[in-house]
Amino acid sequence: KKAVEQDVSAARAKQCADAQERYRKLIEGRRIYREGKDGERQYLSSEELDSARLNAKADVDATCNSAT
After folding, report:
1. d(C-alpha 55, C-alpha 67), whole Å
2. Full-prediction pTM beyond 0.85?
3. Which of 67, 65, 49 is nearest to 16 (CA)?
4. In angstroms, how far is the first alpha carbon of the chain from the final one?
5. Given CA atoms 18, 23, 24, 29 in this order, what sign does their dihedral have?
6. 33 and 42 Cβ atoms separated by less than 8 Å
7. For residue 10, what are the CA distances in angstroms to 4, 5, 32?
8. Which of 15, 17, 24, 68 sits most deeply, having the most CB atoms within 10 A of its CB?
9. Contact at 8 Å (CB) between 62 and 56?
């Protein structure tokens, strides 16, 4: 049981670090894009970027502050 708890704890730590990194990139990035069809870049509008930042922050809060 202890090994399972350690594995779960390590997985949560990695998920938290990944969520924080995504949020950091969205905050610090100047021109954020997603790949569209055929691999072309589609730059996010200000509204899309604001929404992505809010979603990323919510992910950080949910992932890093969850007790279960």
Report:
1. 20
2. no
3. 65
4. 15
5. positive
6. yes
7. 10, 9, 30
8. 15
9. no
**Contact predicate 52/44, CB 8 Å:** yes
Residue 39, phi-psi category: left (phi > 0), alpha (psi -120 to 50), beta (remainder):
left
pLDDT digit string, tens, across residues 30-45: 889 989 889 999 999 9
Checking if the pLDDT of 57 tops 80, the result is: yes
Nearest-angstrom CA–CA distance, 55 and 51: 6
Report which residue type is found at 28: E
Instruction: Tell me the residue type at 15.
Output: Q
- What is the signed CA dihedral for 33, 37, 39, 45, rounded to 10 degrees? -10
Instruction: Tokens for 62, please give them.
Output: 């949910």
- What is the rounded distance in angstroms from the CA atom of residue 31 to the CA atom of residue 53? 13
